Amino acid sequence: MLSYRHGFHAGNHADVLKHLVFVQILQSLHKKPAALCCIDTHAGAGSYDLRAKEAEKVGEFRAGIEKVWQAPAPPALIQTYLDAVCANNPSRPDELRYYPGSPALAHHFLRPQDRMVLIERHPSDHARLDRIYAPNAACRVELGDGYTLLKAFVPPREKRGVVLIDPAYELKTEYQDLLDSLTAAYQRWATGVYVIWYPHVARAQTGRLLKRIAASGLRRILKVELALTAPRAEFGLWGSGLLIVNPPYELDVQIAAILPWLRHILGATSEAPAGVNWLVPE
Ligand SMILES: C[S@@+](CC[C@H](N)C(=O)[O-])C[C@H]1O[C@@H](n2cnc3c(N)ncnc32)[C@H](O)[C@@H]1O
Fold first, then answer.
1. Would you say the pTM of this structure is higher than 0.90?
2. Active site residue 166
């Protein structure tokens, strides 16, 4: 059993970037009434108590969602994400206590015609997802390896939707697993939106993964990156990025417009790289 538990990291700067891009993608897809399917290959526990000992131990959320939550006058795109965070705190909407993971966000935006598929390998996180979401006929919860199981769910019958691939990258083999899973899914469903999260850490595999995805034959891959400091050689997450295959119209413009605000609120240093550009164009 691997040791990664997202509860220690929930609401950190990487979650903020990933989740607000994810929310904006859902918003864009909702412009059409046709049903969509949201597939989460590494779903986590669904939602996180920021007062739990895991979250408090490292306190990563204080340098992430807490700063965004407290910021005055956020841009509209950020406000939509914050409204979803707020909805995850129904008893005290003014208080930031429970941070929604990707399943809670996907569920919040689920319309009656939509579906979602959650895949998680950790038995206790899976059990929690199963208890919360499986009673909803529109939600399917699977225990197992997200890289392998993804191909069983694409193309979804709706032929529209988004796949979130959000690994913890604990194993060196995961970079190749991700590439294999992504390319196999794309062969079956070339019009799906795919969101791939990756960390900025002192590790060469991330750069190699990006090069391999760029050379894989997939087209229209947007890259969004946000760091808090200049690249660091020592241990730790200094930033993160997302690749978005088949991004919705104008996602690049929308995210580029809010990055300066986000960098400012999160206290990114002037040397910290951030930006939106095309890894592979049309
Ligand atoms: C970064 S967390 C996911 C966070 C979640 N997507 C969110 O945004 O709230 C990664 C999750 O993947 C799970 N996991 C690790 N390897 C996996 C695999 N091969 N297949 C499915 N889940 C896996 C871990 O247990 C962990 O809960």
1. yes
2. yes
